[in-house]
Design goal:
Layout (H helix, E strand, L loop, with lengths): L13 H14 L5 E2 L11 H11 L14 H15 L9 E4 L2 H12 L5 E6 L3 H9 L3 E6 L15 H5 L1 E6 L12 H13 L3 E5 L18 H4 L16 E6 L12 E5 L1 H14 L5 H12 L3 H23 L12 E5 L8 H12 L1 E2 L1 E2 L10 E5 L4 H15 L1
Helix pairs in contact: 1-12, 2-10, 3-10, 4-5, 4-9, 11-13
Length: about 400
């Protein structure tokens, strides 16, 4: 049986590869500590699940849900955004509900790229960003992220011949996997660059709230302190001239399994993505969106609690790794640790992660799985308690000894 050529670049996926390695380790009797997948182990808050549960008995929520039926959710998303960033959003033309933000980043290339067009992607970067480009028949130009550049791309390094064929640029800060935060001055440059070269600027923003307070990053949202927060792309593109930004409730509200996301952005880009979405699906069950509305409009204490939980886990894990000789900077954001591999593993992160889970049951994600520039690194997800994270490092120490 012969399948479409567009599937060829999708043969390998970092999460699928590690899933197979974990299955083999479990089959061999290993007690697996899974730090390979960024799926929060924290519970969804009760007031959110209560809203979903209450909807189940309302038969009016049981049918298909089209765009106009999502008005309350779109309004809640617009209000949440305006309260956080001080920028107004039109819920009718500038907000689109999504079945997780990954739906948006994967489908947008279908609305923007013609076959052969380039998309400028971060390297390393989140795998679905590349997958959507491949499915649209586009080409990828990887923008290397290096520690000496604070894991920010250098726009001047992009060849003019590539720019002439480019239609979109994808950014994502706080960044998965490197945990870097981009300052607003960088976004100002990105917006100017995309305007100059007529590019759609995509900002994937799942870790908007998972920023730690080490440098006052959770300080009051005054004009003086705003630069210390993880900025939104629309603080640089206030008239929404070139950009679209993707949000999810998976990280801030521990709702990964409910698959709730949304896009905010330029009305024309939103409309184009809406056309693709209409050809593929409708929306989630209305009861799930009722829970999402409750999340966005209700108490935000659980968000702060989650951030503090991940901060404590980060401190435990990074300290333990440093104590066994790893050079690991303290992540300023996200739920990950991006660690440079010690010798002799620095040239083969896939081999390290495969042998690590096989020998110890500790599963991590190889940096090479996120792109060529990720080689030499490994990503750990902080999705276990401090005690289990400490046990994981103990096993790593035994493995490398």
């Amino acid at each position: 049986m012969e399948f479409a050529q567009r599937l060829q670049p999708l043969q390998s996926n970092v999460f699928a590869d590690m899933d197979r390695a974990k299955a083999l380790a479990r089959a061999a009797g290993k007690n697996v500590i899974d730090l390979s997948l960024g799926s929060s182990d924290l519970p969804t808050a009760a007031h959110i699940t209560d809203a979903i549960a209450h909807s189940l008995s309302d038969s009016s929520t049981h049918g298909y849900l089209l765009f106009n039926g999502t008005k309350s959710f779109r309004e809640a998303a617009a209000i949440w955004y305006e309260q956080k960033f001080g920028i107004s959003v039109n819920p009718e033309t500038e907000v689109l509900p999504l079945i997780g933000s990954q739906e948006g980043t994967a489908h947008l290339p279908l609305a923007v790229l013609n076959p052969g067009d380039f998309a400028l992607l971060l390297d390393p970067g989140y795998p679905s960003h590349a997958g959507g480009v491949y499915l649209a028949g586009g080409q990828i130009y990887p923008m290397p992220l290096l520690a000496e550049n604070q894991f920010l791309p250098v726009f001047d390094d992009i060849p003019q011949a590539v720019l002439a064929q480019s239609k979109m640029m994808v950014l994502s800060y706080p960044h998965n996997p490197t945990t870097a935060i981009a300052p607003l001055a960088f976004f100002d440059k990105a917006v100017a660059f995309c305007r100059e070269h007529r590019l759609v600027l995509v900002h994937d923003f799942p870790y908007v709230d998972l920023v730690f307070d080490d440098s006052g990053l959770e300080a009051a949202q005054t004009e003086e302190n705003r630069k210390l927060m993880a900025p939104s792309i629309f603080e640089a593109d206030r008239d929404k001239s070139v950009a679209i930004e993707f949000f999810t409730l998976s990280k801030s509200y521990n709702m990964g399994g409910f698959r709730v996301g949304y896009a905010i952005g330029n009305p024309e880009i939103i409309q184009a993505l809406r056309q693709v979405k209409a050809a593929v699906d409708f929306n989630q069950y209305e009861g799930i969106l009722n829970g999402a509305i409750t999340a966005l409009t209700g108490p935000q204490d659980t968000v702060k609690t989650s951030v503090e939980t991940f901060r404590k886990r980060r401190d435990t894990f990074v300290c333990a790794l440093q104590n066994i000789g790893w050079e690991v900077p303290i992540p300023p954001a996200t739920m990950y640790v991006w660690a440079k591999l010690p010798e002799p593993w620095a040239i083969d992160s896939v081999k390290f992660c495969t042998q690590l889970v096989e020998s110890t049951g500790v599963a991590a994600s190889p940096g090479a799985g996120f792109g060529k520039s990720g080689e030499g690194y490994v990503r750990f997800a902080l999705v276990e308690s401090p005690e289990i994270l400490a046990e994981a490092v103990r096993r790593i120490a035994e493995f490398q000894s």
